[in-house]
Amino acid sequence: MITSLLVLKCHPEGSDPIILANASDVSHFGFFQRPSVREFIVFVSRTVGKRTPPDQRQSVQHEEYMVHSYNRNGLCAIGFMDSHYPVRSAFSLLNQVLDEYQKSFGESWRTAEADRTQTWPYLDEALTKFQHKTIDSVLARGEKLDSLVEKSSDLSAASQMFYSRAKSSNQCCSIL
């Protein structure tokens, strides 16, 4: 899952990076936590961006999140993903974000002096487009995993029984 994507202008002399674009999906956090989470994302992005040398990639773990950073000659893309998001996919996405940013804005980022608050639609689209799908979203409409397990020739009878028992034992309460 991707929580946030940012594009920053990172200064080689060590001053704080400037945020050029920012898109976040904090819907999985509590309503009252969301402003603090957004502020924390900005803080961590500036810190990691500042410490990522030009033409380098790095990944930093923070609790259950991975913060991936790619600095391309001072233009830096940052991604906040959960620890299950593949690293190679994360850096591929960051590279694509930087390519699209340069296509859209050219070299105008070099003259930026302050954070930009306008949204960049591509970043919002990328945030939703590159989310990992759950098994439910892959199944056809009306199709259930239970029926696929029953029909599968890949699963032995013991595995099918294990699946059904595990599923029934994981149910909290059921009314007959």
Automatic annotation (TrEMBL):
GO cellular component: Golgi apparatus; membrane
Residue spans crossing the bilayer: none
Keywords, comma-separated and alphabetical: Coiled coil, Lipoprotein, Membrane, Methylation, Palmitate, Prenylation
CDD domains from the UniProt entry: Longin
Localization (cell): Endomembrane system
SUPFAM superfamilies named among the record's database cross-references: SNARE fusion complex, SNARE-like
Membrane topology, as annotated: Lipid-anchor
Domain of life where this protein originates: Eukaryota
Domain Longin positions: 6-122
Gene Ontology molecular-function annotations: SNAP receptor activity
InterPro entries, sorted: Longin-like_dom_sf (IPR011012), Longin_dom (IPR010908), Synaptobrevin-like (IPR001388), V_SNARE_CC (IPR042855)
Domain V-SNARE coiled-coil homology: 116-176
Annotated GO biological process: endoplasmic reticulum to Golgi vesicle-mediated transport
Similarity field: Belongs to the synaptobrevin family.
Protein name: VAMP-like protein YKT62
Organism: Hibiscus syriacus
